[in-house]
């Protein structure tokens, strides 16, 4: 699962596509504003830095910043955009390049945890716990299992332009992509996993060519607690806190949690 996703990130044009995203999402803006005073000037590890979308915002809060990614192509582009930044090729499943308790803050954007299977997710969470200082913050997002995933068989419609030739070309591309998505879905659906705690779903990512980890918020909190995180707070896509008993059908849920002060 992870290697298929790594190949998708390394594919020609993929880093450039991600590089077009340069702004924070609404929930991320809220979270960084909320924790700003605590993390300003502290040591930050940005896992899954990709093409560098989060780099300027986190570096604005601290010069003690390190970004890592396991995609060589993504990291190469990120380094070109931010040459004066500490950016390293590293797989979050093995962060031996860092000592225990090296960082005050670990930040994982764009659902980085959902790119690995259930067993490796536990490995990554334990590695994050290891490199965090006691009482350190872990901030991340994850796909919400209560979200209704769009079916590969749902056609998103035609577009129209004053120029008939332009409309014809655009709609031909749409039909081709739609049919390719169905083909990808029929091939990848057999790899789906549905367990009581989580599901791994063939969702629209990269036109249904990938499998993605989804989890309900109550199970995500339990998962974090098993690793040694506590005081978990949850935020919806609009940047509002949500409680455990509050329904949320957003595609992503954001989490802020803390490493127990008595854990090493």
Q: Could you state the order of secondary-structure elements as H and E?
A: HHHEHEHEEHEHEEEHEEE
- Spatial shape: globular
Average of pLDDT: 95
Give the % helix. Answer: 25-40%
Outline the structure in words.
With 264 residues, the chain is an alpha/beta fold. The chain has 2 domains: 2-144 and 216-259, Rossmann fold (3-Layer(aba) Sandwich); 147-214, no CATH class. Helix content is 36%, strand content 22%. The chain is built from 8 helices and 11 strands. The chain has helices at residues 2-10, 14-19, 26-39, 55-59, 72-81, 118-131, 164-188, 217-227, and strands spanning 44-47, 65-69, 86-89, 103-108, 132-144, 193-194, 198-201, 212-215, 229-235, 241-242, 252-259. Strands 1, 2, 3, 4, 5, 6, 7, 8, 9, 10 and 11 form an 11-stranded mixed sheet that branches. Helix 5 links the parallel strand 2 (65-69) and strand 3. The mean pLDDT is 95.
List the helices and strands and how they pair.
Layout: H1 2-10, H2 14-19, H3 26-39, E1 44-47, H4 55-59, E2 65-69, H5 72-81, E3 86-89, E4 103-108, H6 118-131, E5 132-144, H7 164-188, E6 193-194, E7 198-201, E8 212-215, H8 217-227, E9 229-235, E10 241-242, E11 252-259
Parallel strand pairs: 1-2, 1-4, 2-3, 4-5, 5-8
Antiparallel strand pairs: 5-11, 6-7, 7-8, 9-10, 9-11
């Amino acid at each position: 699962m992870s290697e298929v996703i790594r190949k998708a990130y390394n594919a020609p044009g993929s880093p450039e596509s991600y590089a077009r995203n340069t702004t924070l999402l609404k929930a991320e803006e809220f979270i960084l504003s909320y924790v700003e005073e605590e993390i300003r000037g502290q040591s930050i590890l940005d896992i899954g830095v990709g093409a560098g979308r989060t780099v300027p915002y986190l570096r604005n809060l601290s010069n003690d910043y390190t970004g890592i990614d396991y995609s060589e192509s993504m990291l190469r582009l990120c380094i070109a955009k931010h040459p004066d930044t500490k950016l390293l090729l590293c797989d979050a499943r093995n962060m031996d390049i860092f000592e225990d308790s090296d960082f005050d803050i670990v930040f994982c954007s764009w659902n980085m945890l959902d790119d690995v299977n259930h067993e490796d997710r536990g490995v990554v969470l334990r590695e994050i716990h290891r490199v965090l200082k006691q009482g350190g913050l872990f901030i991340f997002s994850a796909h919400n299992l209560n979200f209704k995933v769009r079916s590969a068989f749902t056609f998103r419609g035609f577009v129209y332009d004053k120029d008939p030739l332009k409309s014809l070309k655009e709609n031909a591309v749409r039909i081709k992509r739609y049919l390719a998505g169905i083909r990808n879905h029929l091939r990848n659906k057999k790899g789906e996993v549905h367990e009581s705690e989580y599901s791994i779903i063939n969702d629209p990512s990269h036109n249904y060519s990938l499998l993605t980890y989804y989890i309900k918020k109550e199970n995500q909190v339990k998962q974090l607690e098993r690793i040694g995180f506590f005081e978990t707070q949850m935020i919806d896509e609009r940047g509002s806190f949500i409680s455990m008993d509050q329904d949320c059908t957003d595609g992503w849920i954001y989490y802020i949690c803390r490493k127990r002060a008595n854990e090493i």
